[in-house]
From TrEMBL:
Transmembrane segments: none annotated. It comes from the Bacteria. InterPro entries: Peptide/Ni-bd (IPR030678), SBP_5 (IPR039424), SBP_5_dom (IPR000914). Residues 77-414 form the Solute-binding protein family domain. Residues 1-26 form the signal peptide. This is ABC transporter substrate-binding protein. PROSITE patterns: PROKAR_LIPOPROTEIN (PS51257). CDD domains: PBP2_NikA_DppA_OppA_like_3. Keywords: Signal. The keyword Transcription does not apply.
């Protein structure tokens, strides 16, 4: 049996670090040794755990709210609360609802309830991010739900896998706000939320699938990274999200797992104005960057050298075609460039300092601009800088990178920091967006990636990892690059 190493009153030992978070919640006096799993999470809820917001990913990581569709390791859709689906015409999809599923409030999952949840999300203001720019109509027909899109969209099943489109009981939507307390379908029932400090979940014995092995989950929200690491070290937490690199060396190595993230640290070069309108100077910047020194120096070896925009979190990206026909580098000859980034991610200002030296060694003159993200995003998007360092998520809520690439590199892209407008790139991106899911789509995405890289408008430097901490007694916690899973029905304390 697992025993927490922290004795009664041990919260006092880390009180300063855990300021405002308190100790982990407990349902009774035996909570420390009854197999309940204590989790320290990085970000507190921002929207009262509404599934229509980014808080939905917490509900997913606790296995309390579920979706019609799930994703496998390569991002292909798999059955969830829907057992099967079919595309009946270019804009219409029909999903068969699983039988025998009960919500935590005792009501039954039906097509009508599922359709209500999706329709509520589609009409919400603001919409869930996964439906941004997407118009859908939802209708229940017998034991099926029909989803109709305004335009052809091959990603409808992937969209319905987003935690932001979790299916909750009808009672969740009463009272003007969506409440996941006691209204999910997962192996754990959310029974209590204490503001932005804690949450409690109990095993749901009526779960339709594989029953949970742990009796419950006790969650504390601990924004301070040092405090999270201390909670793992002292036994206050069994599972800890996002251990800071600076704290990893203070913990037992066998308690840490580095999970490759679908996030790439990229140097965007302004192709519309300034020195990097010259492809030869963009090539010179590419050749000047020593990726290994960034990984080993700034990230202390806890990152992966980038070979493309997409990294090891997407294993199929390793099948990318060999790069050919790269533009020849031109001598910078003292070309003056502004290099900008932001402070919100602690490593980026240090990355900027290292890059400044590397570019100057290659013959550029560099001026740095570093601000908080809220104060620099507008200037970056309007092309005020010659070069911009960004840590960018390469798959959005659908698990598909085509949307990110279109946003960042198409002529009409809404996040086109590089100001890139290239007919060949746009054609490749359009082909990727319209390709059917599976191998054909993945191949089209890699072709689009090659087209972007050929312009040197974006120079991928490294792929980030997240460090997850598990106490010695934790068995089968999820190590999920998409950060959708953490405690599953199989997770337990030994």
């Amino acid at each position: 049996m697992h025993l927490h190493k922290t004795p009664p009153g041990a919260c006092l030992a880390v009180a300063a670090a855990l300021a405002a978070t308190g100790c982990f919640p407990a349902g009774d006096d035996t909570a420390a040794d009854d197999g309940r799993i204590s989790v320290a999470m990085m970000q507190p809820p921002r929207s009262a755990l509404s599934p229509l917001t980014d808080d939905a990913f917490k509900l997913s990581r606790w296995s309390t709210a579920e979706t019609l569709v799930t994703l496998d390791e390569v991002g292909d859709p798999q059955p969830g609360l829907a057992t099967e689906w079919a595309r009946t015409d270019p804009t219409t999809w029909t999903f068969t609802i699983r039988e025998g599923v009960d919500f935590h409030d005792g009501t039954e999952l039906t097509a009508d309830v599922a359709a209500h949840a999706l329709e509520y999300a589609a009409q919400a203001s603001p919409k869930p991010r996964i439906l941004d720019g997407v118009e859908i109509a939802v209708e229940a027909r017998g034991d099926t739900v029909t989803v109709t899109t305004a335009e052809e969209d091959p990603l409808v099943p992937q969209r319905l896998s987003s935690p932001q489109l979790s299916i909750l009981a009808q009672s969740a939507y009463e009272g003007g706000a969506v409440s996941p307390v006691g209204t999910g379908t997962g192996p754990f029932e959310l029974v209590e939320v204490t503001g932005t400090t804690a949450a409690r979940l109990d095993r749901f014995d009526g779960y339709w699938g594989e029953p949970a092995l742990a009796p419950g989950i006790d969650v504390a929200f601990v924004p301070d990274g040092t405090a999270r690491a201390a909670a793992l070290r002292t036994g206050e937490a069994d599972i800890v999200e996002s251990v800071p690199t600076s704290q990893a060396a203070l913990l037992e190595e066998d308690t840490l797992t580095e999970v490759p993230m679908p996030r790439t640290n990229t140097l965007y070069l302004n192709t519309e104005e300034g020195p990097f309108t010259d492809p030869g100077l963009r090539a010179a910047a590419r050749e000047a960057i020593d990726r290994e020194s960034l990984v080993e120096g700034v990230y202390e070896g806890r990152a992966d050298v980038a070979e493309g925009l997409l990294g090891p979190a997407l294993p199929w990206a390793a099948e990318r075609p060999a790069r050919t026909g790269a533009t020849e580098a031109q001598d910078p000859d003292g070309a003056s460039v502004t290099l900008a980034t932001f402070t919100d991610r602690a490593e980026l200002p240090e990355v900027a300092t290292v890059l400044e030296q590397q570019l100057e060694d290659a013959g550029f003159e560099v001026e740095q601009v570093v601000r908080e993200y809220a104060n620099i995003e507008e200037d970056a998007l309007s092309g005020e800088f010659d070069a911009f360092i960004l840590s960018r998520a390469t798959v959005l809520d659908s698990g598909d990178p085509a949307a990110y690439m279109t946003s960042d590199f198409s002529c009409d892209g809404s996040f086109n920091i590089a100001q890139l407008c290239d007919e060949g790139v746009d054609a490749a991106l359009e082909a990727a967006e319209l390709a059917p899911t599976g191998e054909e789509r993945r191949a089209a995405i890699l072709e689009a990636e090659a087209a972007v890289l050929a312009t040197d408008a974006a120079i991928p430097m490294l792929h980030e990892r997240v460090i997850q901490g598990d106490a010695a007694g934790v068995v089968d916690s999820a190590k999920d690059p998409r950060e959708r899973l953490l405690v599953t029905s199989r997770t337990r304390l030994d």
